[in-house]
Hints:
The complex is a heterotetramer of chains A (424), B (408), C (329) and D (512).
Chain A: H1 14-20, H2 24-46, H3 54-79, H4 87-131, H5 136-159, E1 180-181, H6 192-198, H7 204-215, E2 218-219, H8 220-238, H9 240-250, H10 252-257, H11 262-288, H12 299-309, H13 314-333, H14 335-358, H15 362-381, H16 387-391, H17 393-404
Antiparallel strand pairs in A: 1-2
Chain B: H1 3-31, H2 36-43, H3 50-79, H4 87-104, H5 109-138, H6 142-162, H7 191-195, H8 208-225, H9 227-237, H10 239-244, H11 249-266, H12 269-276, H13 287-297, H14 302-324, H15 330-360
Helix pairs in contact in B: 1-15, 3-8, 3-11, 3-13, 3-14, 4-5, 4-6, 4-11, 4-13, 5-6, 5-11, 8-9, 13-14, 14-15
Chain D: E1 9-18, E2 21-31, E3 36-41, H1 47-54, E4 62-67, E5 70-72, H2 77-82, E6 85-88, H3 100-105, E7 111-112, E8 115-116, H4 118-131, H5 147-160, E9 165-169, H6 177-192, E10 196-200, H7 204-210, E11 213-218, E12 221-226, H8 233-241, E13 259-268, E14 277-285, E15 289-293, H9 300-308, E16 315-320, E17 323-324, H10 330-335, E18 338-341, H11 345-349, H12 356-361, E19 371-372, E20 375-376, H13 378-391, H14 408-421, E21 426-430, H15 438-453, E22 457-461, H16 465-471, E23 474-479, E24 482-487, H17 494-501
Parallel strand pairs in D: 3-10, 3-11, 6-9, 9-10, 15-22, 15-23, 18-21, 21-22
Antiparallel strand pairs in D: 1-2, 1-4, 4-5, 7-8, 11-12, 13-14, 13-16, 16-17, 19-20, 23-24
Helix pairs in contact in D: 13-14, 14-15
The structure holds adenosine-5'-triphosphate (2 copies) and magnesium ion (2 copies).
One adenosine-5'-triphosphate (ATP) binds at residues 10, 12, 229-230, 233-234, 237, 313-316 of chain A.
Amino acid sequence: MSTATTTPAPSRGALTDxxxxxxxxxxxxxxxxxxxxxxxxxxxxxxxxxxxxxxxFSAALLLAVPLALVALGGLFSERAGVVxxxxxxxxxxxxxxxxxxxxxxxxxxxxxxxxxxxxxxxxVHAIATVTFGVDHVVSGVAINILAEGVVxxxxxxxxxxxxxxxxxxxxxxxxxxxxxxxxxVLSSGPDLLGDLEGKHWFLLSDVAGLLRGLTNGVGVLTxxxxxxxxxxxxxxxxxxxxxxxxxxxxxxxxxxxxxxxxYRLKYIAVIISGALAGLGGVFLVFIAxxxxxxxxxxxxxxxxxxxxxGNWRPGGLAAGAGLFGFADALQLxxxxxVVALLLLIAVLLAAVAVWQALRGKRTQAVLAAVFAAAAxxxxxxxxxxxxxxxxxxxxxxxxxxxxxASQRLRMPKADGLVYRRGEH
Amino acid sequence: xxxxxxTGLALLAPVLAIVVALAISALVITxxxxxxxxxxxxxxxxGDTPSQQxxxxxxxxNRAVPLFLAGLAVSVAFRMGLFNxxxxxxxxxATILAAAVGAAxxxxxxxxxxxIVVVAMAVGxxxxxxxxxxxxxxxxxxxxxxxxxxxxxxxxASFLLTGPLRGSEPGASIITTADVPESGWFxxxxxxxxxxxxAEPRTELYGFLLVAVVVGVVVSVLIKRTRFGFDLRAxxxxxxxxxxxxxxxxxxxxxxxxxxxxxxGLIGLPDLLGDQHNYGTEFTSGLGFLGIAVALLGRNTPVGIALxxxxxxxxxxxxxxxxxxxxxxxxxxxxxxxIVLSVVIANEVARRLTRRQAERGNAVAPPSTGxxxxxxxxxxxGGPPPDDGPGSATGPGLTTAQPQGAGR
Amino acid sequence: xxxxxxxxxxxxESSSASGDLRIGLAYDTGGRxxxxxxxxxxxxxxxxxxxxxxxxxxxxPNDDAxxxxxxxxxxxxxxxxxxxxxxxxxxxxxxxxxxxxxDTTFAIIDSTGVDLGEGNVTGLQFAANEGSFLAGVAxxxxxxxxxxxxxxxxxxxLIQSFEAGFAAGAEAAKPGITVDVKYISPAGDFSGFSDPxxxxxxxxxxxxxxxxxxxxxxxxxxxxxxxAAAASGKRAIGVDSDQYQTVDDPAQQxxxxxxxxxxxxxxxxxxxxxxxxGNVEGGTDITNDLETEGVGLSYSGGFIDDIKxxxxxxxxxxxxxxxxxxxxx
Amino acid sequence: MNESxxxxxxxxxxxxxxxxVVANKDIELRVRRGEVHAIVGENGAGKSTLxxxxxxxxxxxxxxxxxxxxxxTFKSPADAIxxxxxxxxxHFMLADNFTVLENVVLGSEPTKGGRxxxxxxxxxxxxxxxxxxxxxxxxxxxxxxxxGDRQRVEIAKVLYRGATTLILDExxxxxxxxxxxxxxxxxxxxxxEGLTVIFISHKLDEVRKVADSITVIRRGTTVGEADPRxxxxxxxxxxxVGAELPTPQTRTSTVRDTPVLQLRGxxxxxxxxxxxxxxxxxxxxxGEVVGIAGVEGNGQAELVDAIMGLRPLAAGSIVLGxxxxxxxxxxxxxxxxxxxxxxxxxxxxxxxEAPLWENRILGHQTRPPAVKGAFIDRxxxxxxxxxxxxxxxxxxPGPDTLAVALSGGNQQKLIVGREMxxxxxxxxxxxxxxxxxxxxxxxxxxxxxxxxxxxxGIVLVSADLDELIGLSDTLHVMxxxxxxxxxxxxxxTPEELGGHMTGARDTTVGAA
Lengths: 424, 408, 329, 512
Ligand SMILES: Nc1ncnc2c1ncn2[C@@H]1O[C@H](COP(=O)(O)OP(=O)(O)OP(=O)(O)O)[C@@H](O)[C@H]1O
Ligand SMILES: Nc1ncnc2c1ncn2[C@@H]1O[C@H](COP(=O)(O)OP(=O)(O)OP(=O)(O)O)[C@@H](O)[C@H]1O
Ligand SMILES: [Mg+2]
Ligand SMILES: [Mg+2]
């Protein structure tokens, strides 16, 4: 036997690795608890109720779900080795499909319509990249451009002089609304969590806010999306199909040599990818109850970022989408709450500084301490940030977390490489 | 192989692409009940009077200049396997700061312009440098960081515009920076038309066209002919081999992003120095993203990018005559997407046909002529195509022209 | 392109014999069918044509709207007169073109024609702050929680004048009332006008904080505001057109208490009529305000019929100059 | 053997063309059931192509395939697998980020209720592993395995699919003798179970030892069959290339007194664990070849990287001539006289998608003839590439050919030529003849010997023990990152050396 070194457990994503070492479940719990306590403390000190209100959390959910759906779409495609910059375009197609099917056949129609249109975008991407071997980025960019033109054109074709309403930039409204759910007693009816939240007690009210935010008036697609995350994990990592699909992204030549239908699997993966991105679009249509041009607002790209943030894993991308969604919700809710966030950052950075100092890394410690001090000063002196600055809170947060967490990201090995049988 | 057949193969890709794009566009136009032939005629209708015709050319060129610069900025990074999706933010921030500096100082003409150009390039380079720095020190994927920095640039520009750099009076509907005084304007090129004996167009041809040409030539020489360019391309083709050959991978990432960002900083200047003279809420946005398409269309070579930019400029202009002919402008967007897709697909098909051809003959054909088939395995950018130097990408039998090279 | 069909080249064939009114209409981004002021402008043109005869050529800008100057140029060059530019975004380019075509009459909506220094541009302006003032009055009078909100699409001066009027109106009707103001995106980022999801989230935040009526000036994001109102059983105020009539969705219709009307159609129609009668002066601004009924409130659905007299009182005070409505917050 | 029994595999008149190359031309191959059948031939002779045809990876342009006497056509490897054929590729076909289990079951997974049945898969892999003594742990990540284990994973993949005919394409190229012996033990096991093995190798002694019959291929066609019991290695080599079997034997010592490279306490840390290179000290003098032996994964690669400046030092010094170069960049080291033949030519030695003349520049970007000042000298680079192609027998159409179009041996010769042309003071040669045919091998050995005679210092890392023993003046053995023995190659057998490498022998430290 040659050397078989004992290896550490596979990386679980940038953030978790850095913060938790390698012993998950329990540490995740500790981490979450720590964060809740911290948030609670910051809320009490700053008096910014929005920081942990159920309203913020439910907004965060609304903002995170489409990102998570798109990122899941990216997951399927990139796990099968096809880079998907075209997610934005597929999402755009999804919004249009949902609007078009939705005004005729209601919310179920919208669900299917959006998925089908998104999948059609995926199909184009698959034809270009898999069959014709076009560079994945090229094809994705082309699809983004194409999608914009196609939806505008279709609207022009179908909505001009449409009795049901609509126009070149929007569809008629959905003919039925998707159902939404609340936890009985706790977050609806007597609304015990709501009561608790209203008390503004330390910790208890914050937890209540979190729980109520995630359980009150949750749309059907949100439920579906949340289920899709573990489901994708199970499909990709626990089934034969998933193994084969992932093998196309790791070493397609090896898969091919074992009779795995690489091309077919890539097709399936990219089409699923498009359908999921389309569902992300459907989600936006459900909120608005219509299709509206420009509705996606670059969410396809953010979803892609969430995917990379999450190290090409379902749990990780959900965390990425959640982080972004929360920061975005906060900035949309209250510009002053964003200032309170500075206090939070100051505390976290101070902790990092202490930790780095203990590990003997002086430069990092000093750097973190300086930034902590700066954040604290900013918190104490600034009352409200200008709209321009507040607007990029989520982007800056994501970037900060990424650059503070250690980077052990690992993309699928053959991701983005054009595979042609016999030409590896 | 006969010369005829060789030429045929070389022309195959562009012809195929054009045929496919035309076919799809024709289908789309027919679908809305219009005549595709009318559409084509209208698109090539540059007007009736000589001055209208030159004006149409000016419109196309003025649109192509920023697109060319955007494509160039993207392609430099692509060449070493970096996907600079952040060109958008880089040029927006560069333009507003350059406009502010330009408005704040008074210098003699050329110096004033030079200062503005230098500021724009510096800001673009710094903004792109953040991406590079995060990548080499913290390992943050350049795709994420540049997407995020785009939004941050947008927000920052908005803050600057509504706050410290606001130059327009409080009541104005459009918020702009203060105007750059005339000494900071870039003179137009309409003199050229009279020299050539053509009618004077209504608006000025951007003098920045010359700068763009110079930048294009410099970048071309830099990438193809210099040691630095070799290191850059080597890093794109195989990061590990480049490192083993003595290329400092981290330094290369930083230098490349700085160059890419500096070029990106120029994108807004044709409009700023040639027409608008200030940066405002209505300043053209989205050029960075179009630049990606143009770079890919031009297969990351300066000449290709120039052709791609001209094509986009042409299509963009065509949107107006099409509307006069009752064809919706969205058709142009569809045509743009279709062209990008069909050009790249056609390249691929032609590549295969060429190979099969070579198989029957006895020339040694390369297994790949580049586009997209490379891919260094790092970053989703895939790999940049190899050098397009004479005969480098084609075998001895096919040295006349690359099948992908011409005709876009 | 050999045929020499100069002036009428490429224009629509519906050239009517009844009059030689050839109107050029250059839209803001989105173009016709936006269910907003592009459509409103078109409605005005249509109404004018219906009574005066003539034809219209519409042009929409490209995606990044970089070809606005060309749109106006082409229309003027092809002999369309008057040429109407829809949206203040044409404000910084229209003067150059107007100078090049001194014989063509131009109009620009939402921007001034005075400051340009050209004698052939008329600004069609709207006192949106005055209309918004009435919306503020209505909201304040109808609010039971003493808490109302405003959702702006993009933080531009134009939208800020809506905000200013609304806040002033609310304060005038009910001193001390809370007015919660939020914008979806900052200046320069126009996504705020087309992101209903964010509109919903922002409005929901205001409702959750205690507001019971929210006024929006957020363009396409407005449906999100209505949706938030519907979801929380609260009220919303529409903008530009009578959105009670245009939303197509009964659930949303039920929450639209009133809309701040901005009669772009009337203004455009009046302008064309003036033009055909040779009454356009140029280099002037036509301000459409409460007095000219260029702005106002809608009463569809009958939600605010009971406070009509109070609203009218305030309107009269504004017309009489007793109340000076601010244009900036 | 029973002549009348149908042959397990028979290939008749197989022809396969690639763009510009006829890889196989009218090839005949006859393999009897239950035998180990070897195929030998030069680099690029078409062995792998032939085997890929048999494995359904591509279809022959002409000719037919018969299994047990009946003609078959394979559309894909899946068909070949179904027909009982399995192949272990020359370049491993493994997903590094997958576990052994996932790699083995991929494509024919046991499932239970739609789920991948890992328990069942684990059981079956253990069973195969035990039965053929493969010693595999199903749950290890492949990227953590050494080459020997990877090889066994490949074999397990094939056995898992119930193959009755195994194709092994150059399985021993990367193995040390002990591992080769283990592999041959495995093969014997397979043979005993009645399986047929087709075996490709450049190591003719090995072939003679293990094969029951041999087919020789030259330039795409069958030259003939040989009986391993009656044919000598020399005769085989002559059949292959018409040349004599080369030996790596060095002539007289050329070692001078001046040291060119001195390593003192060189230590390279790995992420987390113990050092990859542990306090290594050694000296290379002018005209001396210092060999480094070791089972793959014992720190040789890291040591090479450290000398080249591709990996930071945790401790120690590296002195080239009189300069401590530990703080120097890779480029400066190369400029000051370090030459480098990397272990993995595709990863570190070449730009596959670039033409040969650009590959000539690689690693020599700061020196003529490839560059003039800050600019690339295209003409100079082309001319010099042509010279290298002539002098080093690189077979390619011209300097504008893409590197990827060359066979491995020719790529290696280009790299050797390139590095030699710069006349380095010290050459690091990592596996310089790996996967290279006998003809090219002897060329490379001669080149190394000449360079040594001219006073070049050489650090030779190799898995080929004959090469190590034959070329080295001094031989160090590396085990777990440390130098555990210094041996005199003059009186050393490969078996003894292998013993040191695996730590089985007492490490008697000789004079440095
Ligand atoms: N068996 C399961 N049932 C339901 N949900 C699961 C199951 N396994 C994982 N999940 C969910 O799917 C997500 C998978 O994310 P991720 O890929 O990060 O998982 P992991 O725990 O790192 O996987 P592994 O155990 O393979 O390392 C997790 O968030 C988890 O909530
Ligand atoms: N996919 C391919 N495309 C083009 N040429 C190929 C391809 N595969 C093999 N060749 C060429 O066919 C010839 C035979 O290659 P093959 O790999 O079969 O040789 P080999 O005998 O296995 O050599 P080695 O001992 O180096 O492995 C070579 O010239 C090679 O370059
Ligand atoms: Mg997992
Ligand atoms: Mg081989």
